[in-house]
Write a structure and sequence with these properties.
Elements lengths: L4 H23 L4 H22 L7 H24 L5 H8 L1 H14 L5 H17 L12 H22 L3 H4 L1 H23 L8 H24 L2 H4 L6 H13 L5 H25 L15
Helix pairs in contact: 1-10, 1-12, 2-3, 2-9, 2-10, 3-7, 3-9, 4-12, 4-13, 5-6, 5-7, 6-13
């Protein structure tokens, strides 16, 4: 019996959390450019297996052009997000990244002329109020000099990924999950190759297995997520993404001895509530026309 889309997405979110933990671990001893490059090159390697299994569908010149800008945004956003892991607790970085889903309607209105509904505006206001609450009680500049910069970088990264999701709307139904998954890692790896290899020293031999594990987590995350959204509407599955905060809290505590401030979880409640409301309103809006939705990635990485 085939697995349910909800179960597939739960597993995908778990793998994504594992990927974030390996990125944070590697970032403690490796240059962030090398970590980002490794994430995408190993992710592309494992995604290539899925692409071959799908029969190696043709990747046209138009697909390369269409995904080129997305790849550049992903490369910048991913690198910034991975750097933020080195200065923020996992749960805190993940909480701020959730605003990406709330930014998508605003980006779509500006870029492709979609109508911005009042519910999206309300969800955005509540979500950013949650960010303001989560930022309360942050360590002082003397305790953590880069903390504020880390928060800003996560929010900018979430914005870049929201834009990349809007760019994907027209391509995902045409190109299919195997091609989208492959190019979403391959093109960022191509952009990062030269600066990473020119600036960053190579990893130690002991880190190579962790790099491979990171790539395996990344490929599994993208594959299972694509499978999940092939079987159910995005609006039905969107709330499951917020369970990542649970995994991030557990992994951060067990692996890095992190204990996020209570304000992080208070802010997360508002951000998650806003996201669920936005997903419900989107589903209600789309039901009469039964239009497909492809907005299923709500955070960088």
């Amino acid at each position: 019996m085939p697995a349910s889309p909800a179960l597939l997405l739960v597993l995908a979110v778990l793998l994504g959390s594992g990927m974030d933990a390996t990125i944070k671990h590697l970032g403690q001893s490796n240059h962030v450019l090398l970590v980002a490059f490794g994430r995408y090159v190993f992710g592309a390697t494992f995604s290539l297996v899925g692409y071959i299994h799908a029969g190696r569908p043709t990747i046209t010149t138009a697909m390369w052009r269409a995904h080129g800008l997305r790849g550049l945004l992903i490369a910048f956003g991913g690198t910034g997000f991975f750097w933020a892991f080195t200065v923020l607790p996992l749960a805190e970085a993940i909480t701020y990244s959730f605003v990406g889903l709330l930014i998508i309607p605003f980006a779509a209105a500006l870029m492709i002329g979609e109508r911005l509904r009042p519910a999206s505006v309300a969800a955005g206001v509540v979500g950013f109020l949650g960010v303001a609450i989560a930022a309360q009680g942050a360590p002082s500049a003397s305790e953590s000099p880069l903390h504020t910069l880390g928060v800003i970088v996560v929010l900018l990264s979430a914005t870049l990924f929201a834009i990349s999701m809007v760019l994907m709307r027209a391509r995902a139904p045409i190109d299919g999950a195997p091609i989208v998954g492959l190019l979403s890692s391959l093109i960022p790896a191509m952009f990062l190759a030269v600066p990473a290899l020119a600036i960053a020293p190579p990893p130690t031999w002991s880190d190579w297995p962790i790099f491979l594990l990171m790539g395996l987590f990344a490929a599994g995350f993208l594959y299972l997520m694509a499978r999940a959204y092939a079987g159910a509407e995005a609006q039905q599955l969107a709330p499951i993404h917020y369970t990542e905060l649970i995994w991030a809290s557990l992994l951060g505590f067990v692996l890095f001895q992190e204990e996020p401030r209570p304000q992080i979880y208070l802010g997360a409640v508002l951000i998650i509530a806003a996201g669920i409301y936005a997903a419900w309103d989107e589903r209600r809006f789309r039901l009469p026309s039964s239009r497909p939705s492809t907005d299923h990635v709500d955070r960088p990485g």
